[in-house]
């Protein structure tokens, strides 16, 4: 980016992650994004006068687990506050959140920077809060769906430690993978279960003083975050180049048109008239709970990467790709355990062939038409020399298309590779005997003619000869004619 030569960029991210509890934060309404509009609503979450919220204990457990997994300090005692603002999809007129004392603070995660070096991105705080309802606008009519009201969220506020769009995306991917490894968030980006606000400011290189920042709201894909940051950097750089000032604003990003638009001039914290939520008691986390939840943490992405490198001998790049998604990591492990060859081969097949098709058809790895053990069976067929690597690709496509097992497809396609040395020697001898001219050429030093013999060999066996064995046998027979 041109602007990066002239300006330093400061980026800070705030992530809202929906907690994967069965019921809402303050009432027992079911959380169900696909339910009919306004059917998962009660007196509490629709903000009726005289009702009282009661905290869902799972919310505390899930938020604490995320805090533990991101090296945060847990506040044994934390409080809820009201953030007051009026919006039709917020019937209470305020959002219950944590302001003065959140559940956790001062954490970090580690990402790889542009040069591959480890970089710590600090987390300022993690707070528990509730989601709002959803409004849709159709022509002159606005419709409100309150099903999402009171759905528990954690807001993860990152420190402004990020410097490039790539780092922003690496940070988000890491947070996303930790959340989904823990199982505390479904991580579904399309459904808005993981969304991000981006703060960006620019200042001239070498300047100590940071510029005025803008906030771009509600980005719900890694790609859009990168794009939005790039657009905002260019926009601010153009303004600064012209000697204009950056205004502190809340912005929206349209991924279709790649345009930034102004939503509103930024509100300051005092505009929200925060005050302690009188209807909820403080959250107290006991030492025993903290110990129990810590023990329950699963193997996290970083530990898995390290283990894959040592246990399976795969490069760190492969380990990073394969562990980004917990389900993909289990798939790889199942293949690698059942495969008799080197795990690197299994990693390649998964990263290249399998992921290409899964992405193309938008299929989740746990619903892959080729199951892990079937992929291992296919790779074993290649490893044992029953089929060639090239044939395996055709077999794989058919397995994927028709949801069939490796052995069934190999049989169906009649693809049995001839590794029987005796049979191949017979074929080779016949070829050599019936092509005396070419044999003469070979013997007089024209090595290039060797390809002609191997070609005939494959033709005679309808491509089923094991290429390595065919090669060796042909060489041996031709060489034996030399004397
Ligand atoms: Zn409810
Ligand atoms: Mn928030």
Topology:
Blueprint: H1 3-6, E1 7-18, H2 57-69, E2 73-74, E3 77-78, E4 81-84, E5 94-97, E6 104-112, E7 118-130, E8 134-138, E9 141-145, E10 152-158, H3 165-182, E11 194-204, E12 214-219, H4 222-241, E13 249-254, E14 259-265, E15 275-276, E16 283-284, H5 287-295, H6 301-312, H7 316-323, H8 326-338, H9 343-360, H10 372-383, H11 389-402, H12 406-412, H13 421-433, H14 436-443, H15 450-460, H16 467-480
Parallel strand pairs: 12-13
Antiparallel strand pairs: 1-10, 1-11, 2-6, 3-16, 4-5, 4-15, 6-7, 7-10, 8-9, 11-12, 13-14
Helix pairs in contact: 2-5, 3-4, 6-7, 8-9, 8-10, 10-11, 13-15, 13-16, 15-16
The number of E-state strands comes to 16
Number of distinct helices: 16
Mean pLDDT over the full residue set: 92
Rg measurement, Å: 30 Å
Largest sheet: number of strands, sense, barrel closure = 9 strands, mixed
Return the structural class. alpha+beta
Which hetero ligands occur in this complex?
Answer: zinc ion, manganese (II) ion
Q: Portion of residues in helices? A: 40-55%
- The unreliable regions are none
- Trace the largest sheet across and list its strands: 2-6-7-10-1-11-12-13-14
Number of domains: 3
> Which geometry do the CA atoms define?
elongated
Q: Describe it for me?
A:
The chain is α+β, with helices and mostly antiparallel strands. About 40% of the residues lie in helices and about 20% in strands. It has 16 helices and 16 strands. The chain has helices at about 5, 55-70, 165-180, 220-240, 285-295, 300-310, 315-325, 325-340, 345-360, 370-385, 390-400, 405-410, 420-435, 435-445, 450-460, 465-480, and strands spanning about 5-20, 75, 75-80, 80-85, 95, 105-110, 120-130, 135-140, 140-145, 150-160, 195-205, 215-220, 250-255, 260-265, 275, 285. The strands form four sheets. Strands 2-6-7-10-1-11-12-13-14 form a nine-stranded mixed β-sheet. A three-stranded antiparallel β-sheet has the order 5-4-15, with no helix packed on it. Strands 3-16 form a two-stranded antiparallel sheet. α2 crosses α5 (about 285-295), α13 (about 420-435) crosses α16 and α15 packs across α16. The protein is elongated and about 100 Å long. Manganese (II) ion (MN) binds near residues 16, 129 and 155.
């Amino acid at each position: 980016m041109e602007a990066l030569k002239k300006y330093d960029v400061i980026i800070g991210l705030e992530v809202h992650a929906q907690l994967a509890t069965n019921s809402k934060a303050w009432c027992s309404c079911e959380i169900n994004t696909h339910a009919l509009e306004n059917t998962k609503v009660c007196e509490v979450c629709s903000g009726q006068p005289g009702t009282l919220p009661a905290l869902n204990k799972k919310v505390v457990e899930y938020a604490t687990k995320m805090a533990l997994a991101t090296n945060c300090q847990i506040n044994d005692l934390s409080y809820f506050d009201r953030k007051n603002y009026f919006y039709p999809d917020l019937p209470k007129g305020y959002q219950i959140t944590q302001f003065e004392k959140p559940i956790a603070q001062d954490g970090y995660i580690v990402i790889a920077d542009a040069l591959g070096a480890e970089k710590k991105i600090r987390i300022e705080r993690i707070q528990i809060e509730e989601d709002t309802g959803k409004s849709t606008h159709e022509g002159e009519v606005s419709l409100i769906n309150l099903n999402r009201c009171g759905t528990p969220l954690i807001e993860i506020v990152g420190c402004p430690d990020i410097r490039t769009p790539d780092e922003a995306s690496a940070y988000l991917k890491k947070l996303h993978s930790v959340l989904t490894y823990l199982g505390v968030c479904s991580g579904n980006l399309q459904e808005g279960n993981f969304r991000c606000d981006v703060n960006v400011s620019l200042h001239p290189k070498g300047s100590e003083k940071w510029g005025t920042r803008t906030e771009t709201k509600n980005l719900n894909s890694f790609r859009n975050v990168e794009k939005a940051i790039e657009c905002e950097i260019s926009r601010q750089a153009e303004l600064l180049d012209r000697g204009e000032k950056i205004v502190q604003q809340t912005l929206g990003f349209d991924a279709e048109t790649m345009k930034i638009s102004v939503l509103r001039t930024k509100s300051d914290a005092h505009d929200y008239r925060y005050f302690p939520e009188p209807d909820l008691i403080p959250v107290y986390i006991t030492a025993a709970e903290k110990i129990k939840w810590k023990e329950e943490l699963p193997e996290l992405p970083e530990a898995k990467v390290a283990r894959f490198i040592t246990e399976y001998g795969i490069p760190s790049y492969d380990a990073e790709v394969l562990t980004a998604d917990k389900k993909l990591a289990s798939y790889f492990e199942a293949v690698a355990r059942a495969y008799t060859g080197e795990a690197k081969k299994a990693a390649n097949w998964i990263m290249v062939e399998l992921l290409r098709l899964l992405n193309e058809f938008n299929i989740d790895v746990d619903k892959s038409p080729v199951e892990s053990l079937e992929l291992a069976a296919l790779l074993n067929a290649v490893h044992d020399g029953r089929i060639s690597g090239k044939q395996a690709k055709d077999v794989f496509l058919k397995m994927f298309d028709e949801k069939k097992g490796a052995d069934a497809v190999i049989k169906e396609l009649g693809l049995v590779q001839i590794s029987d040395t005796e049979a191949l020697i017979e074929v080779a001898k016949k070829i050599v005997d019936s092509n005396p001219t070419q044999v003469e050429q070979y013997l007089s030093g024209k090595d290039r003619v060797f390809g002609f013999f191997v070609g005939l060999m494959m033709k005679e066996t309808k491509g089923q000869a094991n290429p390595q064995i065919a090669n060796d046998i042909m060489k041996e027979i031709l060489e034996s004619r030399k004397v």
